[in-house]
Amino acid sequence: MNSNNNLEKIRQEVVEAGLTLAHSSMTIGTYGNISQRVDEKYIAITPSGRDYEQLTAADIVVTDLAGEVQEIDASGAVKAINVSDVEQGNCVKSNDETSSVPLRPSSELPLHLEIYKNFPEARAIVHTHSVYASALAVAHKDLPPVIEDLTQIVGGAVRCTEYTIAGTKLLGEKAVEAMQGGRSAALLANHGAVCWGRNLKEALATAQILEKAAQIYCVAHSFGTPFPLNEKTVNTLHDFYLNHYSKRQRGEE
To answer: What is the pTM (predicted TM-score) of this model?
Structure first.
């Protein structure tokens, strides 16, 4: 695993992203969830049932890609913890007082794991219950590429999945299916939205832009039929984002 300092930085970034989510009304209370890759073996994810306003870096749960919860000691070393103990709340602090006792990971951990397994370029995931994206999800409607910034960052229409029970591996599989063809977002039927990015900042921006685009699309319907961008334009915009604009944001161009 990365050094302890880097792990703590990653966990703190997840906390800060959660605050951004809460303050932008993208979710309410303890709903929604955020994760970020620690390295190729582990991810850091928000805990189950905890208010974003109350989270600290130590509350962010680390799991491997099989979903096994890890205990972190002061040096950043990890060891697997019995999942049933975590689920039943039976974890107790070890004799080593520098060890942290993990909380339960988000119930949507299977959703995050499926996306990470199928999209190696995904380094962070944001799952929201934002109003307009959820409205489209309730209507089982795809969000066409109607506005440039969404098209640039997502790569085309944001497809809606079939309805699947939350917290299941099948929900993750359906989200992955909806993201095929280079998409970085999906609408989850009767549920919300999920987005990934090559870093946490990009994943969060994708979720915010998706919500704005969903609102624009819904408002545009009050005037008439919205006109999606054509496929050639979609490809041009997404290519520009991947190969130029996002590099400029990172200071690489």
So the answer is: 0.88
